[in-house]
What does this fold into?
Amino acid sequence: MSHMGKTTEVKVWDLPIRVFHWSLAILVGVLWVSGKWGKLDIHMLLGVWVLALLLFRLAWGVVGSPTARFSQFVRGPGAIRDYLAAARAGTARSIGHNPLGALSVLALLGLLLAQSASGLFTTDDIVTDGPLVHAVTSKTAALLSSVHRMGSKLLLGLIAVHLAAVVFYKWVKKDDLVRAMITGTKLVPQGVQGIRFANSWLAVVLFAVAAGLVWGGLKML
It folds into this structure.
């Protein structure tokens, strides 16, 4: 951000969002490796934890810190056009997700939810079945297994786009998104205010509820 003049460091990402982000990144990486290596018992176990994380993120997107809330960054086409115009003029100012980046966030969360949900019904037709395969017909299980495999390829593409955007912001726009997601703070032009974080204990409670719903629901079914 060398073109911005004087800058100041402000709070951007709360601890729950940062823990969610890096936990999800690690789990998705291990899921990909375990799937490739045929370690489907590990793959399915971790997939359930990803589902719990995603349910937590949906809840935190409603009651969490301002930059975590979907209402703060999910906008319509008009807002996206305005942001692109401001970006071209060098006047775009945002401390969290911008309206364009929100599309990537929604796409990744949506696809990961679809992958986690479909994974519950997948089978390799040999040894390993998802925890809810018994609840559907063999034809439905085969269909969802195919959807899950195709979704994994699409997910890799979205992750590649996400990483490319991170590199672009780092080297072209001089905006270190990785550092911000590690430290929770970001350099912004003077005059741009940071945010007040929500209570992290609320996030702990919400994740416990999400995990309880997922694991309890699977045991009941």
